[in-house]
Queue: 2 jobs
Job 1
Amino acid sequence: MRVSLRHAVLAALLDGEYSGYQLAKLFDLSVCNFWYAVPQQLYAELTRLERDGLIAGRRVIQHDRPNKRVFHVTDAGIGELAAFAAAPTKPSFIREDLLVMVQAVDELDAAPVIAQLEERAAAAAAKVDTFDRLLARMRGDLDEETFLREGDRVGPYLTCLRGRSFEQENAAWCTRAAAVLRTRAPSR
Amino acid sequence: MRVSLRHAVLAALLDGEYSGYQLAKLFDLSVCNFWYAVPQQLYAELTRLERDGLIAGRRVIQHDRPNKRVFHVTDAGIGELAAFAAAPTKPSFIREDLLVMVQAVDELDAAPVIAQLEERAAAAAAKVDTFDRLLARMRGDLDEETFLREGDRVGPYLTCLRGRSFEQENAAWCTRAAAVLRTRAPSR
DNA sequence: CAGACCATGTAAAACGTTACATGATTCG
DNA sequence: CGAATCATGTAACGTTTTACATGGTCTG
């Protein structure tokens, strides 16, 4: 079985108990560094995972907002993850509209591409800041070296570091590409 | 219309005339930096693109190997790309099995994950070298600054730069993550 | 002549995306 | 009470992946 959405969901649920809605937030914030999914996919996958006994749900009654069901990974779920981690990875998988545009930019009006590059640069820089805060929160009082040596749950920290470096490079590249294109097409 | 595979194919075909088979090679080598696709997708997309008049094909008779059909982008195809580039981009889209494994690694046997990280680090380093050669070939005698100011077709150069930096960061991160996990689990 | 590479597809199954649908609760 | 946020889905449609299929040419 390939289906890695389920493994991404299982991996995210190791963090604690989450509802579908909370998971969707997480997939927007941090999990999106390595797995993109829309909320509808998550609800559907949670249903399947529970049916297959890889996660278990628990109803939470809330008074200040609608009730919800939160899920945690079962032993069978850990087993599924272990089997997944032991198998060879598929090639990585990037699909980036913006790069398609840049690839073609020589034959096109550069102005809208430049605008999008600059927007993206700003968004990426903002994400770097978000990740920095997330990383600081995860390592608490420890410095990075110590945390990585002695902390528990370094997995999420490591993936967050990768996300940070990705967004950092993204910001730098978008800025550079926009500058190059501006220089070449002084119009506008 | 979303469907960006078609735009990725169009963008790749701006480079010159390619057959489905050659395009598949290209999608493995350089286009994979921004768009992942398997050959069967490309053959199907080429058929659709030709039917829609966005590309045109030409039969090439070869004596040393089987005949083939090569394609180039038509004016209508350029128009389609222009419309695509003027529309806002979708959020970027990453799906990386290896990061899912690392996210979950604290609850799992780290050994196979470490092995895959090290493999991936080596593969990424090799890709950096490949990109360096590709970049050198694209800019010819010019240095990078000059090429980006005056060269024609900087689009592919820019996307290649992004690919290079991605693989560079990838190699560095994989190496670091593997080292961290090795330190924590001295077993094996 | 076997194995590698060139070259191109079809069909079925799996997966992902979009649009639609519903309803609770809080805040201003 | 309207807008925002919380909360959870279904159904239809499109796209992607996998398995299967075929055959030419070259190299050792």
Note: Residues 2-3, 5, 37-38, 40-41, 44, 62-67 of chain B lie near DNA strand D (CB under 10 Å from a C1').
Job 2
Amino acid sequence: MSKSDCERIHKQLSVGEVAKRSGVAVSTLHFYEAKGLIASWRNAGNQRRYTRDVLRRVAIIKVAQRTGLPLASIRDALKTLPEGHKPTAADWRRLSASWREELNARIAGLTQLRDQLDHCIGCGCLSLDECPLRNPWDELAEQGPGPHLLDPDEESLD
Amino acid sequence: MSKSDCERIHKQLSVGEVAKRSGVAVSTLHFYEAKGLIASWRNAGNQRRYTRDVLRRVAIIKVAQRTGLPLASIRDALKTLPEGHKPTAADWRRLSASWREELNARIAGLTQLRDQLDHCIGCGCLSLDECPLRNPWDELAEQGPGPHLLDPDEESLD
DNA sequence: TCTTGACCTAAAGCAATATTGAGGTTTTAC
DNA sequence: GTAAAACCTCAATATTGCTTTAGGTCAAGA
């Protein structure tokens, strides 16, 4: 039986095949498995075997990482997929909807930052008690990190 | 002489004062100094002393980090500031201009990702050879990472 | 059969960005 | 003068996301 027969006949993928098709290193697949993001079973010789499903999962992982999500969050999101059957389009849609919100939030944050950069650094002011760049904590309670005035007569850094 | 006299009279800041005013931990200031992002001199008792300038630098560092820049890049950017005199508004403007481009690129990337997420994951297709989410490498040469077809008869993951 | 490539595990290493701890000194406040 | 708070250095630890190494097993092709 030839190597690619492994996949063509049994619809199983070896770790090397998954690596080539998904574009990630074998060591990364091991790593993702250890972290609970993907799963496999073993053949008689203790080698990993995957269903083709894993290709989509790896693709999703890589896409989600580009949004800035840490692997732990991606793992948790993937855990919400059904156990028994192959995820449906609706399952994936649900995942993508939550990530879309994440993305929108990050885009909004960066956009605001860019505009503030124009106004605040551009003009060189960066006044400690007025600049939104310096005080993105405005809405938070007194507790928490952030710059604090020590003297009431403090107005600016310059 | 009281503690705050250190600053009010001599216009110097201790590391603790900088920490409180800038909102970062003392250990972080040590760390930034070791990495060449900020500078200080020592008093007779070997304690760090800072000019008020450092407050602006720390503010800039924190802002730049929010754009996604690594500290090494921020350090390099800060190195372009004049050595002898206090940076002018024009100096800061030059820095912010380069970071604005970075930001625009990141915003564009995330926006594109969000739209592709809508089209590709939302519908559940993720076709290996067509989906832009799966193949953001389209413009790169053959070499390099990325998913590759092993069989010409491969069309989709499903 | 034999060799080579693919695979296995477990541990260590790396880069970035800090935080924590130990053990000692200095400054401040009363 | 003394005690507490702040400071010092250096080393270790933590987290995230992997890669590398070492030492061995398994499988595929000539």
Note: The radius of gyration of chain A is 24 Å.
